[in-house]
């Protein structure tokens, strides 16, 4: 059974729903407490499906692109370089909306896109996330040899090809698909 959530005003047209979900995605990167700021990024690993929490950093609505920052040594980067297909799953209890954003991820490890963003965050505490001398997931050995700290900052861009929207609501759940074939209602 899906959890029942109340949403003050229900949108009725697919156009309005698509507009509203992109607006919310645009807001979430600026609102620390927005549920969609932290979402789950799923990819294909060598041993099957893999998934992890990430923070949405930027949204380009026109280009249908979502950006996430990462340590370029993290295993997900190699996974996404092998197979670019990925799904981002977002859930907002306030809206009662789940999104499954499917598409392809491009990982930038250098170039202007990376250096310009690194220039703005390198003096912030968050920069530490990309300066660890040990690669994410590497085994930690006390007294072990480590690299000199340097940045391993990269930008992952998800080019969204389809949005699977699910609304969980006390008056009945609704689901819709927005993709290259257009907009349509689905059975929830
Ligand atoms: C709340 C939260 C936010 C996170 N945000 C990010 C992020 O924006 N980018 C990132 O690469 N990892 C982020 N992580 C860490 C990942 O979930 C994951 O542990 C790490 O990136 C290694 O993943 P991998 O082994 O699949 O590459 C976050 C973890 C948590 C708990």
From TrEMBL:
Source superkingdom: Bacteria
Necessary cofactors: FMN
SUPFAM superfamilies to which the protein is assigned, alphabetical: FMN-binding split barrel (SSF50475)
Pfam family, any one: Pyridox_oxase_2
Domain Pyridoxamine 5'-phosphate oxidase Alr4036 family FMN-binding residue range list: 25-107
Protein name per Swiss-Prot or TrEMBL: Pyridoxamine 5'-phosphate oxidase Alr4036 family FMN-binding domain-containing protein
Lineage: Bacteria, Pseudomonadati, Pseudomonadota, Betaproteobacteria, Burkholderiales
Record keyword Flavoprotein present: yes
Keyword 4Fe-4S: no
Organism from which the protein derives: Sphaerotilus microaerophilus
Protein keywords: Flavoprotein, FMN, Oxidoreductase
């Amino acid at each position: 059974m899906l959890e029942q959530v109340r949403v003050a005003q229900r949108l009725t047209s697919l156009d309005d729903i698509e507009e509203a979900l992109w607006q919310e995605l645009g807001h979430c990167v600026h609102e620390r407490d927005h549920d969609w700021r932290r979402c789950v990024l799923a990819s294909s690993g060598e041993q099957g499906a893999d998934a992890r929490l990430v923070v949405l950093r930027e949204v380009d609505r026109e280009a249908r692109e979502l950006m996430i920052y990462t340590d370029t040594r993290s295993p997900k980067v190699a996974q996404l370089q092998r197979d670019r297909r990925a799904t981002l799953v977002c859930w907002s209890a306030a809206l009662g909306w789940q999104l499954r954003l499917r598409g392809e991820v491009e990982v930038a490890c250098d170039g202007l896109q990376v250096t310009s963003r690194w220039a703005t965050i390198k003096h912030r505490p968050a920069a530490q996330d990309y300066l660890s001398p040990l690669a994410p997931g590497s085994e930690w050995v006390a007294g072990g040899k480590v690299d000199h700290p340097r940045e391993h900052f990269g930008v992952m861009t998800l080019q969204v090809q389809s949005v699977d929207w699910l609304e969980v609501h006390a008056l009945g759940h609704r689901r819709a698909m927005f993709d290259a074939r257009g907009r349509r209602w689905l059975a929830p």
